[in-house]
Design brief:
The chain has about 400 residues and is of the alpha+beta class. The chain has three domains: about 80 residues, Elongation Factor Tu (Ef-tu), domain 3, CATH 2.40.30; about 150 residues, Threonyl-trna Synthetase, Chain A, domain 2 (Threonyl-tRNA Synthetase, Chain A, domain 2, 2-Layer Sandwich); about 120 residues, Roll (Diaminopimelate Epimerase, Chain A, domain 1). It contains eight helices and 21 strands. β12 and β13 form a beta hairpin. α2 packs across α3, α5 crosses α6 and α7 crosses α8.
Length: about 400
Protein backbone atom coordinates (compact mmCIF):
# COMPACT_ATOMS: atom_id res chain seq x y z
CA UNK A 1 0.00 0.00 0.00
CA UNK A 2 1.70 3.22 -1.15
CA UNK A 3 -1.14 5.73 -1.03
CA UNK A 4 -4.42 6.24 0.78
CA UNK A 5 -7.47 6.50 -1.47
CA UNK A 6 -8.99 9.94 -0.88
CA UNK A 7 -12.75 9.46 -0.78
CA UNK A 8 -13.41 13.17 -0.25
CA UNK A 9 -12.19 13.74 -3.81
CA UNK A 10 -14.94 11.44 -5.08
CA UNK A 11 -17.71 12.71 -2.78
CA UNK A 12 -17.12 15.58 -0.33
CA UNK A 13 -20.61 14.93 1.09
CA UNK A 14 -19.60 11.43 2.29
CA UNK A 15 -19.83 11.44 6.09
CA UNK A 16 -19.38 7.69 6.76
CA UNK A 17 -17.12 5.02 5.24
CA UNK A 18 -15.40 1.74 6.02
CA UNK A 19 -11.66 1.12 5.74
CA UNK A 20 -8.74 -1.00 6.94
CA UNK A 21 -5.69 0.09 8.91
CA UNK A 22 -2.52 -0.37 6.83
CA UNK A 23 0.08 1.23 9.12
CA UNK A 24 0.51 2.51 12.67
CA UNK A 25 2.88 4.99 14.31
CA UNK A 26 3.11 7.43 17.20
CA UNK A 27 2.21 11.12 16.84
CA UNK A 28 3.01 13.31 19.85
CA UNK A 29 2.53 10.44 22.24
CA UNK A 30 -0.70 9.18 20.66
CA UNK A 31 -1.39 6.38 18.22
CA UNK A 32 -1.87 7.36 14.59
CA UNK A 33 -3.11 5.04 11.88
CA UNK A 34 -3.01 5.15 8.09
CA UNK A 35 -5.99 3.71 6.22
CA UNK A 36 -6.34 2.15 2.80
CA UNK A 37 -9.13 4.67 2.09
CA UNK A 38 -10.46 7.65 3.97
CA UNK A 39 -13.01 10.46 3.79
CA UNK A 40 -11.08 12.48 6.39
CA UNK A 41 -9.52 15.60 4.91
CA UNK A 42 -5.93 16.24 6.12
CA UNK A 43 -4.76 19.75 6.97
CA UNK A 44 -3.49 21.52 3.85
CA UNK A 45 -4.07 24.32 1.37
CA UNK A 46 -5.20 26.71 4.10
CA UNK A 47 -7.99 24.33 5.19
CA UNK A 48 -7.95 22.55 8.60
CA UNK A 49 -8.36 18.80 8.92
CA UNK A 50 -11.63 16.99 9.45
CA UNK A 51 -12.49 15.50 12.81
CA UNK A 52 -14.83 12.68 13.82
CA UNK A 53 -14.41 9.02 14.85
CA UNK A 54 -12.76 5.80 13.70
CA UNK A 55 -14.37 2.72 15.21
CA UNK A 56 -15.85 4.89 17.94
CA UNK A 57 -12.46 6.46 18.80
CA UNK A 58 -12.13 10.24 18.41
CA UNK A 59 -9.93 11.47 15.56
CA UNK A 60 -7.87 14.39 16.89
CA UNK A 61 -5.75 15.27 13.86
CA UNK A 62 -5.31 14.23 10.23
CA UNK A 63 -2.17 14.74 8.15
CA UNK A 64 -0.65 13.42 4.95
CA UNK A 65 2.83 11.97 4.63
CA UNK A 66 4.28 10.48 1.43
CA UNK A 67 0.89 9.53 0.01
CA UNK A 68 -0.56 8.06 3.22
CA UNK A 69 -3.12 9.90 5.29
CA UNK A 70 -2.55 9.52 9.03
CA UNK A 71 -5.27 9.81 11.66
CA UNK A 72 -4.16 10.68 15.20
CA UNK A 73 -6.52 9.02 17.69
CA UNK A 74 -7.57 9.68 21.27
CA UNK A 75 -7.22 5.96 22.09
CA UNK A 76 -6.11 2.66 20.58
CA UNK A 77 -7.40 1.97 17.08
CA UNK A 78 -9.71 -1.02 16.57
CA UNK A 79 -8.53 -4.05 14.58
CA UNK A 80 -9.90 -5.19 11.21
CA UNK A 81 -12.40 -3.23 9.18
CA UNK A 82 -13.38 0.00 10.89
CA UNK A 83 -16.15 2.56 10.45
CA UNK A 84 -15.16 6.17 9.93
CA UNK A 85 -17.63 8.93 10.81
CA UNK A 86 -16.93 12.52 9.78
CA UNK A 87 -17.92 15.45 12.01
CA UNK A 88 -20.36 16.69 9.38
CA UNK A 89 -21.14 20.18 10.73
CA UNK A 90 -17.39 20.92 10.77
CA UNK A 91 -16.88 19.45 7.28
CA UNK A 92 -19.80 21.37 5.75
CA UNK A 93 -18.66 24.59 7.42
CA UNK A 94 -15.23 24.15 5.85
CA UNK A 95 -16.85 23.41 2.45
CA UNK A 96 -18.83 26.66 2.69
CA UNK A 97 -15.82 28.75 3.74
CA UNK A 98 -13.42 27.28 1.17
CA UNK A 99 -15.82 27.60 -1.75
CA UNK A 100 -16.67 31.10 -0.59
CA UNK A 101 -12.96 31.93 -0.67
CA UNK A 102 -12.69 30.83 -4.30
CA UNK A 103 -15.63 33.05 -5.23
CA UNK A 104 -14.46 36.06 -3.21
CA UNK A 105 -10.88 35.84 -4.51
CA UNK A 106 -12.11 35.84 -8.12
CA UNK A 107 -14.53 38.67 -7.31
CA UNK A 108 -11.62 40.85 -6.13
CA UNK A 109 -9.78 40.14 -9.40
CA UNK A 110 -12.82 40.99 -11.53
CA UNK A 111 -13.81 44.18 -9.69
CA UNK A 112 -10.46 45.75 -8.80
CA UNK A 113 -7.61 43.56 -10.06
CA UNK A 114 -6.52 42.48 -6.58
CA UNK A 115 -4.94 39.01 -6.49
CA UNK A 116 -5.12 36.64 -3.50
CA UNK A 117 -1.64 35.64 -2.27
CA UNK A 118 -2.64 33.67 0.86
CA UNK A 119 -5.70 32.01 2.40
CA UNK A 120 -6.42 30.79 5.93
CA UNK A 121 -9.57 29.03 7.09
CA UNK A 122 -9.86 29.76 10.82
CA UNK A 123 -12.10 28.34 13.52
CA UNK A 124 -14.38 31.40 13.63
CA UNK A 125 -13.39 33.46 10.58
CA UNK A 126 -11.34 33.10 7.41
CA UNK A 127 -8.91 35.45 5.71
CA UNK A 128 -7.41 36.15 2.32
CA UNK A 129 -4.37 38.35 1.80
CA UNK A 130 -4.54 40.57 -1.27
CA UNK A 131 -1.56 41.98 -3.17
CA UNK A 132 -2.88 45.52 -2.67
CA UNK A 133 -2.16 47.53 0.48
CA UNK A 134 -5.26 49.69 0.15
CA UNK A 135 -8.73 49.39 -1.34
CA UNK A 136 -11.53 51.93 -1.12
CA UNK A 137 -14.78 51.19 0.65
CA UNK A 138 -16.44 51.26 -2.75
CA UNK A 139 -14.03 48.62 -4.10
CA UNK A 140 -14.59 46.36 -1.07
CA UNK A 141 -18.37 46.68 -1.39
CA UNK A 142 -18.15 45.99 -5.13
CA UNK A 143 -16.18 42.77 -4.61
CA UNK A 144 -18.61 41.59 -1.93
CA UNK A 145 -21.59 42.33 -4.18
CA UNK A 146 -19.96 40.46 -7.09
CA UNK A 147 -19.30 37.44 -4.86
CA UNK A 148 -22.86 37.32 -3.57
CA UNK A 149 -24.23 37.62 -7.10
CA UNK A 150 -22.37 34.39 -7.84
CA UNK A 151 -23.93 32.83 -4.73
CA UNK A 152 -27.39 33.90 -5.89
CA UNK A 153 -26.75 32.46 -9.35
CA UNK A 154 -26.39 28.93 -7.87
CA UNK A 155 -23.51 28.06 -10.20
CA UNK A 156 -22.33 24.43 -10.24
CA UNK A 157 -19.01 23.72 -8.51
CA UNK A 158 -17.08 20.76 -9.94
CA UNK A 159 -13.66 19.18 -9.45
CA UNK A 160 -11.69 17.24 -12.06
CA UNK A 161 -8.11 16.05 -12.52
CA UNK A 162 -6.26 17.30 -15.59
CA UNK A 163 -2.78 16.69 -16.95
CA UNK A 164 -0.17 19.44 -16.75
CA UNK A 165 -0.26 19.83 -20.53
CA UNK A 166 -3.93 20.83 -20.39
CA UNK A 167 -3.44 23.63 -17.83
CA UNK A 168 -2.48 26.21 -20.45
CA UNK A 169 -5.99 25.93 -21.90
CA UNK A 170 -7.64 26.88 -18.58
CA UNK A 171 -8.06 30.45 -17.26
CA UNK A 172 -6.54 29.54 -13.88
CA UNK A 173 -6.60 32.20 -11.19
CA UNK A 174 -3.13 31.13 -10.02
CA UNK A 175 -0.59 28.66 -11.44
CA UNK A 176 -0.59 25.31 -9.58
CA UNK A 177 2.14 24.40 -7.10
CA UNK A 178 2.17 20.71 -8.09
CA UNK A 179 3.18 18.82 -11.23
CA UNK A 180 1.59 15.85 -12.96
CA UNK A 181 -2.13 15.46 -12.53
CA UNK A 182 -3.68 18.61 -11.05
CA UNK A 183 -7.09 18.84 -9.42
CA UNK A 184 -9.01 21.82 -10.79
CA UNK A 185 -12.04 23.17 -8.93
CA UNK A 186 -14.33 25.14 -11.23
CA UNK A 187 -17.12 27.52 -10.33
CA UNK A 188 -18.86 27.26 -13.67
CA UNK A 189 -17.87 30.11 -15.98
CA UNK A 190 -16.48 32.18 -13.09
CA UNK A 191 -13.40 30.68 -11.42
CA UNK A 192 -10.87 27.93 -12.14
CA UNK A 193 -8.41 27.05 -9.35
CA UNK A 194 -5.94 24.27 -8.64
CA UNK A 195 -7.14 23.02 -5.25
CA UNK A 196 -7.28 19.84 -3.20
CA UNK A 197 -9.87 21.04 -0.68
CA UNK A 198 -13.51 20.14 -0.12
CA UNK A 199 -16.22 22.29 -1.69
CA UNK A 200 -20.00 22.52 -1.98
CA UNK A 201 -21.71 21.38 -5.19
CA UNK A 202 -23.42 24.72 -5.87
CA UNK A 203 -22.54 28.28 -4.98
CA UNK A 204 -26.05 28.58 -3.51
CA UNK A 205 -24.86 26.35 -0.65
CA UNK A 206 -22.30 28.99 0.35
CA UNK A 207 -25.35 30.83 1.68
CA UNK A 208 -23.83 34.28 2.05
CA UNK A 209 -20.40 35.91 1.80
CA UNK A 210 -19.76 38.79 4.19
CA UNK A 211 -16.54 40.79 4.55
CA UNK A 212 -16.09 41.32 8.29
CA UNK A 213 -12.78 43.18 8.59
CA UNK A 214 -9.72 44.68 6.89
CA UNK A 215 -6.12 44.89 8.10
CA UNK A 216 -3.21 46.45 6.26
CA UNK A 217 -0.11 44.24 6.48
CA UNK A 218 2.82 45.94 4.76
CA UNK A 219 2.21 45.84 1.02
CA UNK A 220 -0.80 43.53 1.44
CA UNK A 221 -4.37 43.80 2.69
CA UNK A 222 -5.85 41.07 4.89
CA UNK A 223 -9.57 40.59 4.34
CA UNK A 224 -11.53 38.73 7.01
CA UNK A 225 -14.72 37.14 5.74
CA UNK A 226 -17.57 34.85 6.85
CA UNK A 227 -19.66 32.46 4.81
CA UNK A 228 -22.93 30.58 5.29
CA UNK A 229 -23.70 29.59 8.85
CA UNK A 230 -20.90 31.76 10.20
CA UNK A 231 -22.27 34.82 8.41
CA UNK A 232 -25.80 34.14 9.67
CA UNK A 233 -24.56 33.65 13.23
CA UNK A 234 -22.66 36.92 13.02
CA UNK A 235 -25.76 38.68 11.68
CA UNK A 236 -27.71 37.39 14.70
CA UNK A 237 -24.96 38.64 17.00
CA UNK A 238 -24.93 42.09 15.40
CA UNK A 239 -28.72 42.24 15.43
CA UNK A 240 -28.64 41.58 19.16
CA UNK A 241 -26.09 44.36 19.66
CA UNK A 242 -28.13 46.80 17.57
CA UNK A 243 -31.34 45.95 19.41
CA UNK A 244 -29.67 46.28 22.79
CA UNK A 245 -28.06 49.60 21.87
CA UNK A 246 -31.31 51.04 20.52
CA UNK A 247 -33.25 49.98 23.62
CA UNK A 248 -30.73 51.63 25.93
CA UNK A 249 -31.24 54.94 24.17
CA UNK A 250 -34.96 54.34 23.67
CA UNK A 251 -34.65 54.99 19.93
CA UNK A 252 -35.06 52.98 16.74
CA UNK A 253 -32.07 51.07 15.37
CA UNK A 254 -31.61 53.61 12.57
CA UNK A 255 -31.31 56.36 15.19
CA UNK A 256 -28.84 54.54 17.43
CA UNK A 257 -25.67 55.98 15.82
CA UNK A 258 -26.95 59.52 16.15
CA UNK A 259 -27.77 58.82 19.81
CA UNK A 260 -24.25 57.53 20.39
CA UNK A 261 -22.79 60.61 18.72
CA UNK A 262 -24.85 62.86 21.00
CA UNK A 263 -23.72 60.93 24.06
CA UNK A 264 -20.07 61.13 22.96
CA UNK A 265 -20.36 64.91 22.45
CA UNK A 266 -21.92 65.32 25.89
CA UNK A 267 -19.19 63.17 27.41
CA UNK A 268 -16.45 65.32 25.83
CA UNK A 269 -18.03 68.44 27.34
CA UNK A 270 -18.34 66.76 30.74
CA UNK A 271 -14.74 65.52 30.62
CA UNK A 272 -13.49 69.03 29.87
CA UNK A 273 -15.59 70.41 32.73
CA UNK A 274 -14.28 67.76 35.13
CA UNK A 275 -10.69 68.48 34.08
CA UNK A 276 -11.20 72.19 34.74
CA UNK A 277 -12.79 71.52 38.13
CA UNK A 278 -10.01 69.13 39.12
CA UNK A 279 -7.38 71.69 38.12
CA UNK A 280 -9.15 74.36 40.18
CA UNK A 281 -9.45 71.98 43.14
CA UNK A 282 -5.76 71.05 42.91
CA UNK A 283 -4.77 74.72 42.90
CA UNK A 284 -6.94 75.40 45.95
CA UNK A 285 -5.68 72.29 47.76
CA UNK A 286 -2.08 73.26 47.00
CA UNK A 287 -2.70 76.69 48.49
CA UNK A 288 -4.12 75.15 51.67
CA UNK A 289 -1.18 72.77 52.02
CA UNK A 290 1.32 75.54 51.41
CA UNK A 291 -0.16 77.69 54.17
CA UNK A 292 0.34 74.89 56.70
CA UNK A 293 3.66 73.60 55.35
CA UNK A 294 6.50 72.78 57.79
CA UNK A 295 9.40 75.24 57.66
CA UNK A 296 12.80 73.52 57.42
CA UNK A 297 15.45 76.21 57.08
CA UNK A 298 15.02 77.78 53.67
CA UNK A 299 12.63 75.02 52.54
CA UNK A 300 9.00 74.31 53.25
CA UNK A 301 8.02 70.65 53.54
CA UNK A 302 4.59 69.60 52.29
CA UNK A 303 3.57 66.06 53.30
CA UNK A 304 0.16 64.43 53.14
CA UNK A 305 -1.53 61.12 52.34
CA UNK A 306 -4.61 61.16 50.10
CA UNK A 307 -7.28 58.58 49.39
CA UNK A 308 -7.84 59.68 45.79
CA UNK A 309 -6.69 58.70 42.30
CA UNK A 310 -2.95 59.11 41.81
CA UNK A 311 -3.51 61.46 38.84
CA UNK A 312 -5.33 63.86 41.13
CA UNK A 313 -2.46 63.84 43.64
CA UNK A 314 -0.04 64.56 40.79
CA UNK A 315 -1.98 67.72 39.94
CA UNK A 316 -1.46 68.95 43.51
CA UNK A 317 2.25 68.10 43.38
CA UNK A 318 2.65 69.96 40.08
CA UNK A 319 0.92 73.03 41.50
CA UNK A 320 3.17 73.03 44.60
CA UNK A 321 6.50 72.51 42.84
CA UNK A 322 6.10 75.90 41.15
CA UNK A 323 6.57 77.60 44.54
CA UNK A 324 10.16 78.57 45.53
CA UNK A 325 11.58 76.45 48.34
CA UNK A 326 8.90 73.73 48.03
CA UNK A 327 9.69 70.13 48.97
CA UNK A 328 6.61 68.03 48.23
CA UNK A 329 6.09 64.44 49.45
CA UNK A 330 2.58 63.09 48.87
CA UNK A 331 1.16 59.62 49.40
CA UNK A 332 -1.83 57.92 47.78
CA UNK A 333 -3.38 55.19 49.95
CA UNK A 334 -5.56 52.36 48.66
CA UNK A 335 -5.24 49.20 46.60
CA UNK A 336 -1.97 50.39 45.05
CA UNK A 337 -0.24 52.72 47.54
CA UNK A 338 2.01 55.24 45.83
CA UNK A 339 4.44 58.02 46.71
CA UNK A 340 4.94 61.19 44.66
CA UNK A 341 8.01 63.29 45.48
CA UNK A 342 8.93 66.58 43.79
CA UNK A 343 10.59 69.91 44.55
CA UNK A 344 11.04 73.46 43.35
CA UNK A 345 13.90 74.23 40.98
CA UNK A 346 15.77 76.19 43.69
CA UNK A 347 15.93 73.21 46.09
CA UNK A 348 19.11 71.06 45.70
CA UNK A 349 17.55 67.83 47.05
CA UNK A 350 17.68 64.65 44.90
CA UNK A 351 14.07 63.48 45.20
CA UNK A 352 14.75 60.24 43.29
CA UNK A 353 17.42 59.24 45.79
CA UNK A 354 15.23 60.32 48.70
CA UNK A 355 12.32 58.21 47.42
CA UNK A 356 14.44 55.11 46.83
CA UNK A 357 15.91 55.28 50.32
CA UNK A 358 12.52 55.68 51.98
CA UNK A 359 10.95 52.82 50.00
CA UNK A 360 13.91 50.45 50.45
CA UNK A 361 13.21 50.35 54.19
CA UNK A 362 9.63 49.11 53.60
CA UNK A 363 10.28 46.76 50.65
CA UNK A 364 8.83 49.23 48.17
CA UNK A 365 10.12 50.12 44.72
CA UNK A 366 10.44 53.33 42.77
CA UNK A 367 12.71 56.01 41.42
CA UNK A 368 12.91 58.98 39.13
CA UNK A 369 14.69 62.21 38.42
CA UNK A 370 16.18 64.57 41.02
CA UNK A 371 13.16 66.88 40.60
CA UNK A 372 10.36 64.27 40.29
CA UNK A 373 10.10 60.69 41.51
CA UNK A 374 7.36 58.09 42.02
CA UNK A 375 7.15 54.65 43.62
CA UNK A 376 4.91 52.10 45.27
CA UNK A 377 4.67 50.68 48.78
CA UNK A 378 3.35 47.19 49.65
CA UNK A 379 0.53 48.55 51.87
CA UNK A 380 -0.82 51.70 53.49
CA UNK A 381 1.19 51.18 56.72
CA UNK A 382 4.41 50.91 54.73
CA UNK A 383 3.40 54.00 52.76
CA UNK A 384 3.02 56.04 55.93
CA UNK A 385 6.32 54.74 57.36
CA UNK A 386 8.19 55.62 54.17
CA UNK A 387 6.70 59.12 54.13
CA UNK A 388 7.70 59.73 57.78
CA UNK A 389 11.27 58.53 57.08
CA UNK A 390 11.58 60.76 54.01
CA UNK A 391 10.29 63.79 55.92
CA UNK A 392 12.91 63.30 58.64
CA UNK A 393 15.71 63.17 56.04
CA UNK A 394 14.39 66.24 54.17
CA UNK A 395 14.01 68.21 57.41
CA UNK A 396 17.66 67.61 58.17
Amino acid sequence: MTETERLYYVDPYMDQFTAHVVARRSEKGRQAVALDRTAFYPTGGGQPNDMGELGGVAVLDVLTDDGLIWHTLADEAPEGETLGVIDWPRRFDHMQQHTGQHVLSQAFIKTCGAETVAFHLGATASTIDLDRAELTGEEIAGAEAEANAVVDAALPVTATFVESAELAQLPLRRPPKVAGQVRIVQVKGFDWSACGGTHVASTAEIGLIKIAGLERRGSELRVTFLCGRRARADYSRLQGLATGLASRFNVGQDEALAAVDRLAAEQRVLRKTVEELEAAWATAEAETLWMSAEQAGEWRLVTRIYACPAERAKLIAQALRARPGAVVMLGVAGARPQLIFTRADDVPLDMGSLLRGALAAVNGKGGGRPDWAQGGAPNDAALEAALVAARLVAAG
